[in-house]
Amino acid sequence: MNDMGAIPAALENLKTITHVGEVEVLEVIDMANGLKGLLPTSGIYMQLANGKIIVRPSGTEPKLKAYIELIVPVTNNSVTTDSLPDNSVTNNSETNYFDAKQLLETQAEQLKVEIRKTLGV
User: Fold this and answer.
1) Distances from the Cα of 94 to the Cαs of 49, 51, 90, in angstroms?
2) CB 116 within 8 A of CB 55
3) Which of 85, 84, 53 is nearest to 69 (CA)?
4) How many structural domains are present in the chain?
5) Nearest residue to 45 via CA among 85, 14, 5, 10
6) CA–CA gap between residue 32 and residue 20 (Å, rounded)
7) What Cα–Cα distance (Å) separates residue 24 from each residue in 10, 58, 69, 100, 111?
8) Maximum CA pair distance of the chain?
9) For residue 25, which of 17, 34, 35, 33 has the smallest C-alpha distance?
10) Any idea what the CATH number is for the domain that residue 92 is in?
11) How far apart, in whole angstroms, are the C-alpha atoms of residue 74 and residue 37?
12) Which residues contact 55 (CB under 8 A, 6 or more apart)?
């Protein structure tokens, strides 16, 4: 994004997002109104089934930054993958840490690509 003036419109477009690629967005919060007890700031918070995405403008450059956090529960040295998208796991609902880490890294990369498409960058 080379134009600081395009940033507010890009953030406005995210307010109505329902999916990032194939991943459903469960909730969208405009951070200008505050977020979970935090002070208001410019940005959009998107809640996913297994994580969240925060998109906010850089304070010094004409660009948007996306922060992606994905979570998978761990129980008894195995990882429960039920919260991951259906297309990211096999029929097994438990897997080891390293397999789950790889799945989450792959999902994060896919989300990065889809966020860029959505923002038009």
Assistant:
1) 17, 18, 9
2) no
3) 53
4) 1
5) 14
6) 21
7) 19, 26, 15, 20, 11
8) 50
9) 17
10) 3.30.310
11) 28
12) 11, 14, 43, 44, 46, 64, 65, 66, 67, 115, 119
For residue range 104-113, what is the model confidence (pLDDT) as tens digits?
Answer: 899 999 999 9
**Which token pair is 50?**
């297994």
| Residue numbers of the domain that contains 91 | 4-119
Q: pLDDT tens digits, residue range 15-65?
A: 999 999 889 999 999 999 888 888 999 999 999 998 999 999 988 888 899
C-alpha 38: how far from its chain's center? 19
| Cα–Cα dist 108/103, whole Å | 9
- Alpha carbons within 13 A on the beta-carbon side of 94: 5
pTM: 0.78
